[in-house]
Design brief:
The structure holds three protein chains of three kinds. Chain A is built from twelve helices and two strands. By secondary structure, chain A is mainly α. The N and C termini of chain A lie close together (about 10 Å). By secondary structure, chain B is mainly α. Chain B has a domain of about 170 residues: MetI-like (MetI-like fold, Orthogonal Bundle). In chain B, helix 4 crosses helix 11, helix 8 packs antiparallel against helix 11 and helix 11 runs antiparallel to helix 14. Chain C is an alpha/beta fold. Chain C folds into two domains: about 160 residues, D-Maltodextrin-Binding Protein, domain 2 (3-Layer(aba) Sandwich); about 230 residues, D-Maltodextrin-Binding Protein, domain 2 (3-Layer(aba) Sandwich). Chain C has 21 helices and 14 strands. In chain C, strands 2-1-3-12-6 form a five-stranded mixed beta sheet. A four-stranded mixed beta sheet of chain C has the order 8-9-7-10. The longest helix of chain C is centred in the N-terminal third of the chain and has 18 residues. The radius of gyration of chain C is 26 Å and the shape is globular. Classes of the chains: A mainly alpha, B mainly alpha, C alpha/beta. The interface between B and C is large, with 74 and 70 residues.
């Protein structure tokens, strides 16, 4: 990091001293915004989790740790957490691996490059309501294109054994463009002369990919990994829009954020909803901290 | 000779893979399009199963175009996107630079707050932020739409990563030139992260466009509604007019695709010149 | 616009690279807040047209959740604007967003001026004084006399002797059937002599072994439109009369649910198929021969060519043992926000929507049946494609010597919790109807717990 350049023999100028002031000035708008918009609501949620909430935020009743003791015994919570993990385990690795390969291909000079890019980006610009609708329709066991084309009577989204995979497939499909855009922007920042040098050394194709691309792209991969792990653990829209309450597979697909939404917004039980979301936050924090530590082993900063 | 054929087969292989994935990406859209041109009966018919409409009807498109004021919706959506992109890029590039390149007291703690924000599911903010906006008497305005996106933890993190991957000796050179920190940031560093900035711009635009619950809740007036919210309201409780829903979805996608195509050009050309100079 | 966007943030960069290093570095930290202010000023320019007699030119904000009703209600609201000069802006939200919006608004203290109320949530909104109390207005009004509305609906929006909403409409349930399928099977159409057993027999006969056609369809969430009606017709109940306990373990309720199980096993598509597709879509695509549906679906079915060609409506069957026919009924109310800054204008609008003339108009336009007494014939006559009379007939004392009963949709203080809980629990019974009795008895306990936990 920049601060480690102290060994440079140049006299300690105002530069170092000014870092404190400029640093704070630069982060001020962002931090102010985050604290007001996000951190403060988070703490009011923490506060709420100790209450049995009244209607419309009035008449809250302090219940201590009751919401948490209920939470620990609530098998629905743990099952939802497990469902969330199942979803993440498919979405994250597949979307990253496929996107990485496609991004490397698309970073070459080749015919139709921008057409491909536009196509892969399409799912990102489709309205979520439309995406859910069309996939639901494709998967439909009776009216769906999928069963019609491939035959069979697979209940893609209502068979508890496979519904979570079907949902995760939509997840990969919708997020691929996101990962590709990030990887391309990361690839663009890798100086071309590295590849030229490698080419002279006889390393090209897969060898160059592993020797140059992967290490130099590792900050981007790390970023994608962190954001996608967090994002996939927060999966909500897909479950909410594709599955409905009657679906026999609902129990084996409903995510933890979905459960939080049910309690907070539908059942009017914000206290318990808050406890649920704090559990998720704790899980995400542990995983993220672990990743932050592990990055030192594999992420390569220039 | 053999090297050339090897390269050629490689090229073909790459294209085959890309084409397969393109088809997977496109199928839902093609289905959307086919459905939009069908009649309601055809869209929900199993016996026989209808893939191609027997008659390409544009009724759904005209009905939707008449029912929804798309120009107003486009305008609101573009305003929403514009202000969110401007706010996100400005605040995130500064914060990203500070977190990525500067040493200052409390930096690690502050950055952990940034990460912390990303871990919180967005649904949690709806009601508190709504109370803030309504406290300012600003519901039903473009400002209300932009409000949750004034700053971005995601963008800050993204740009921090971008700044960290730049070569170390950049600041050194700037310092020897007599630039102060702000000038170094503005003149040397920021331009080098252009590709990440554009990526952030694209994401901010996409997320703003996809944001659904917030606009639905904060703007009840039709005059200040963005596309996504209008589409969702179309999906009435029991509505099953699939052709119209699909037609509306397609019309709603168009400006985003155009926007992306324009950005994409910048995105690619912008970086080719800035990479690998130092 | 997009050009500007690119230009703006590229030029920010450009300026940076061109600026001489010795120049003064103007801090740009203020920019973000400036832009947000600019955003707000550019957007807060309100429409200007000050003809309103009430002094405010802003339209009254009205929010509803049913797209099918928007056009008709807007017509009625336009007449109101002509009359009073007060503009009205009607917005539709989907059901979930609608309640999130009201909840956020009630919590934050800033709601739409006028909106619909539903019996699921009305108790909570009334108790917390979110809704404008209408007693004084009603007393002074020449137009509104609560005796003129269906008493069941009026009652839904009264608490502790005060009225909080003007009855808007009411809905009942009827049986939709596919004439073509009945003809093909050589069966006579459903009529007022049908018992539930007749319906079952017909449904079984209409079910084809190859899975291309089924006699009946229902989902666990089709409570108000399907199984509630069977339960009450067979003498069971969902919520006790004092709104304090569950009836899911009542012997008669279990009898009805057993009947549901029989239908599911012998005459319905698989639970998974029904949940994926929805019973209305299956009806509209000619996959099922009969469904039970509420009067609120009529406008939607009228827009479907297949339905218009093949389907019609019959009164619900009755139970042979009890000799009773029952339809769940529910009604919405027009309510106003207690914190609105224009309570008088809001009242004028409620009064308008509730007036005899406009209630009649609502029915004539085919929007929905109106809550105002004796206006519903107009609704029946809004179309000659379907015979809508069965929806009205069930409100009569009796039909062909069978006693008819209208049952108010069962509710408690916060009905959403247990009504959603029921459809989740029943999913298991739908997948395996032999479990019906156990699922229902187990759920009764869960529901009693939920009711006990209500805030009240």
């Amino acid at each position: 990091m920049a601060g480690k350049t102290k060994k440079v023999k140049a006299p300690v100028t105002s530069w170092e001293r000014n870092q404190n002031i400029w640093g704070w000035l630069f982060i001020l708008p962002t931090m102010l915004g985050l604290i007001i918009l996000n951190i403060y609501p988070m703490f009011s949620t923490l506060y709420q989790s100790f209450f049995k909430t009244g209607d419309f935020g009035k008449g809250n009743m302090f219940v201590g740790l009751e919401n948490y003791t209920t939470l620990i015994q609530d098998s629905e919570v743990w099952r939802s957490l497990w469902n969330t993990f199942k979803y993440a385990i498919i979405e994250v690795p597949f979307s990253i691996a496929i996107a990485l390969v496609l991004a490397v291909f698309l970073n070459r000079k080749m015919a139709g490059r921008s057409t491909y890019r536009a196509i892969f980006f399409l799912p990102m610009v489709a309205a979520p309501a439309a995406v859910a609708m069309v996939w639901k329709w494709l998967y439909n066991s009776k009216f769906g294109l999928l069963n019609h084309v491939f035959g069979g009577n697979t209940e893609w989204i209502s068979n508890p054994k496979i519904a979570w995979i079907s949902i995760a497939v939509i997840g990969v499909w919708s997020i691929l463009g996101y990962n590709i855009v990030l990887f391309i922007s990361g690839l663009q920042e890798i100086p071309k002369d590295y590849y030229e040098a490698a080419d002279i050394d006889g390393a090209s194709g897969p060898a160059a990919f592993f020797k140059i691309t992967l290490p130099l792209l590792s900050p981007t991969i790390f970023f994608v990994l962190i954001t996608r792990v967090i994002g996939s653990l927060q999966v909500f829209d897909l479950v909410y829009m594709v599955m409905d309450e009657n679906n026999p597979a609902m129990k084996s697909t409903q995510s933890i954020v979905y459960l939080f939404y049910q309690y907070s917004f539908k059942y009017g039980n914000k206290g318990y909803g808050s406890a649920i979301v704090l559990l998720l936050l704790l899980v995400i924090m542990i995983i993220t901290i672990f990743q932050m530590i592990a990055q030192k082993k594999w992420v390569y900063y220039n | 000779m053999s090297l050339k054929t090897k390269r050629n087969t490689q090229k073909i292989l790459v294209h085959v893979i890309l084409i397969i994935f393109s088809i997977i990406m496109l199928v839902p859209f093609i289905w959307m399009m086919l459905t939009a041109f069908k009649s309601v009966g055809e869209a929900t018919s199993v016996n026989p199963f209808v893939i191609f409409p027997s008659e390409w009807k544009t009724d759904a498109f005209t009905a939707v175009w008449k029912n929804m004021n798309f120009f107003l919706l486009y305008k609101n959506t573009l305003l929403l996107i514009f202000w969110r992109v401007v706010c996100a890029c400005l605040t995130a590039t500064m914060a990203g630079y500070a977190f990525g390149r500067l040493q200052f007291k409390g930096k690690n703690f502050m950055f952990s707050l940034v990460l912390f924000q990303m871990m919180i599911p967005g649904q949690l903010f709806i009601i508190p932020q709504y109370i803030m906006v309504s406290g300012m008497k600003m519901t039903n305005s473009i400002f209300a739409l932009v409000f949750p996106g004034l700053v971005t933890a995601f963008g800050t993190f993204l740009l921090k990563q971008a700044y960290m991957s730049l070569p170390k000796d950049l600041e050194e050179a700037a310092r020897l030139d007599g630039c102060n920190i702000f000038q170094t940031f503005l003149r040397i560093m920021a331009p080098l992260t252009k590709s990440s900035m554009i990526a952030l711009g694209i994401f901010t635009a996409v997320f703003a466009y996809k944001d659904l619950m917030w606009p639905l809740v904060v703007n009840t007036s039709a005059a200040k509604m963005p596309l996504s919210a209008a589409l969702a309201t179309m999906q009435g409780q029991y509505s099953s007019n699939y052709p119209q829903l699909m037609a509306a979805s397609l019309i709603a996608c168009v400006p985003m695709i155009v926007l992306y195509l324009i950005f994409q050009k910048q995105f690619i050309e912008g970086i080719a010149t800035s990479g690998g100079k130092l | 616009m997009k050009k500007k966007a690119i230009a703006l943030f590229l030029s920010t960069m450009m300026v940076g690279s061109l600026a001489a290093c010795g120049g003064s570095g103007n801090s740009s930290t203020g920019t973000s807040t400036d832009t947000s202010k600019a955003a707000s000023t550019s957007s807060s320019a309100a429409s200007t047209s000050g003809t309103a007699s009430s002094g405010s030119s802003k339209p009254l904000e009205v929010v509803i959740w049913d797209t099918n009703q928007q056009a008709g209600l807007q017509q009625i609201a336009d007449l109101f604007t002509e009359e009073t000069g007060i503009k009205v802006d009607i917005q539709v939200k989907d059901w979930d967003s609608y309640w999130t919006l009201l909840e956020a608004g009630a919590t934050g203290g800033d709601m739409p001026d006028v909106f619909w109320m539903h019996s699921n949530n009305s108790q909570m909104y009334m108790k917390n004084d979110i809704l404008l109390k209408l007693d004084d207005y009603i007393e002074k009004s020449d137009t509104i006399n609560l005796d003129n509305y269906m008493p069941e609906v009026t009652e839904l929006y009264q608490r502790d002797g005060s009225t909080y909403a003007i009855p808007k409409d009411y809905d009942t349930i009827a049986l939709w059937y596919n004439k073509t399928m009945f003809d093909a099977a050589g069966l006579s159409y459903p009529d007022d002599t049908w018992t539930w057993d007749d319906m079952y027999d017909a449904a079984v006969k209409l079910t084809k072994a190859d899975g291309s056609q089924y006699g009946f369809a229902m989902n666990p969430s089709n409570d108000q439109d399907t199984y509630y009606n069977m339960v009450y017709s067979m003498g069971g109940y969902i919520v006790s009369d004092d709104h304090k306990s569950s009836g899911y373990d009542d012997p008669n309720t279990l009898k009805a649910m057993d009947y549901v199980g029989k239908l599911l096993t012998d005459a319905c598509p698989s639970a998974t198929t029904m949940s994926e597709t929805g019973t209305d879509v299956m009806m509209q695509s000619g996959t099922v021969a009969m469904i039970m549906q509420g009067s609120w679906m009529t406008a939607g079915f009228l827009a479907n060519d297949y339905m218009k060609e093949n389907c019609d409506v019959a009164i619900l069957p009755y139970d042979a043992t009890t000799g009773k026919r029952a339809s769940i009924c529910n009604g919405l109310g027009w309510a106003a926000y207690s914190g609105t800054d224009r309570p008088d204008d809001c009242w004028k609008l409620l009064e308008w929507f509730g007036s005899e003339a406009m209630q009649k108009k609502q029915a004539e336009l085919g929007v929905t049946m109106s809550a105002y007494n004796n206006t519903s014939d107009a609704w029946v006559n809004c179309t000659d494609v379907f015979n809508l009379k069965p929806y009205l007939d069930i409100a009569k004392e009796s039909t062909s010597d069978v006693k008819n009963e209208l049952i108010l949709r069962p509710y408690t203080y916060n009905s959403t919790v247990w009504s959603m809980g029921a459809s989740t629990a029943l999913v298991n019974a739908w997948s395996d109807p032999t479990q019906m009795e156990k699922v229902c008895t187990d759920f009764a306990a869960e529901m009693n717990k939920a009711i006990a936990a209500e805030n009240k």
